[in-house]
TrEMBL record:
InterPro entries: SAM-dependent_MTases_sf, TrmK. SUPFAM superfamilies: S-adenosyl-L-methionine-dependent methyltransferases. The lineage of its organism: Bacteria, Bacillati, Bacillota, Bacilli, Bacillales. One of its GO terms (molecular function) is tRNA (adenine(22)-N1)-methyltransferase activity. It holds the Pfam family TrmK. It comes from the Bacteria. PANTHER family: TRNA (ADENINE(22)-N(1))-METHYLTRANSFERASE. GO terms for biological process: methylation. Coiled coil: none annotated. Keywords: Methyltransferase, Transferase. This is tRNA (Adenine-N(1))-methyltransferase.
Amino acid sequence: MNTDKLSKRLETVAKYIPRDSTFADIGSDHAYLPCYMVKRNAVRFAIAGEVVDGPYQSAIKQVKQEGLTSKISVRKGNGLEVVETNEVDCITIAGMGGALIASILENGRDKLKNVQRLVLQPNISAVSIREWLLRNNWTLVAEEILEEDGKIYEILVAEKGDSSALYETREESAILFGPFLMKERNDAFVKKWNLEKKNWQRILAQLEAAPESEENIQKRKELQQKITLVDEVNKS
């Protein structure tokens, strides 16, 4: 992967960044995504944000090598600290856990007032992001799920608005699986949830062999409910 050829997952993120927008890529690593977008004249300006010094220095080096320092600002800071209010139209966060992405959005809520779009790619726990979006008046406008190098990734695209209509029926399933993804049910979706189901069944078997306790009873109940949801979505 480089600034001319992104990974499949980052290419998918890139296609949802509005043309001629300004955007901030949080956790930008080598700033591949900002460089890719600017080199194609797809955006007017980009911010590459990093909290860890090593990736921050790598991003600075990459942007300088590409001669893009006038169009890409590399900044060091935690989450949305690197963004000024009203500075960008779009925020991308890719390659982190869903709970961490949700916490970054929560901690930076004051920076989101005039942001028009979020493009989020969690490695795990996309449900944490859907729950945050629902609570904070952001609505999903698109979702994708794909497999690359043996790993399965979800991309969530959100804009300001009431999302309750997405979850009016089968709310628990829609939040867990994604309202768009559970309708499409492509090969990556089926593979992901069949693997999750097998893992839950394995854990459930261990819990059933363990001593009885309130905690174990509750965990078994939660796992059984999730397994049932997978069976239901696969049948629908």
